[in-house]
Amino acid sequence: xxxxxxxxxxxxxxxxxxxxxxxxxxxxxxxxxxxxxxxxxxxxxxxxxxxxxxxxxxxxxxxxxxxxxxxxxxxxxxxxxxx
Length: 83
What we know:
83 residues, mainly alpha, 4 helices, 0% strand, globular
């Protein structure tokens, strides 16, 4: 969570078109995270994938859609390998 908040703060002042985030958007996102009551499955590898791919988004190298697609693809591959 500390790293995520750091990335969000950087996005607020970014000039990159993919990483611009308003204060309101940041607050809504953090509010959403705060209201998650249950996590059905916690997998450190999945969380590592999410954090790694999110850094590319916050650095302005990818759009949100590209980032989500990449996360989904890598998590699917990881889960397929577990079977």
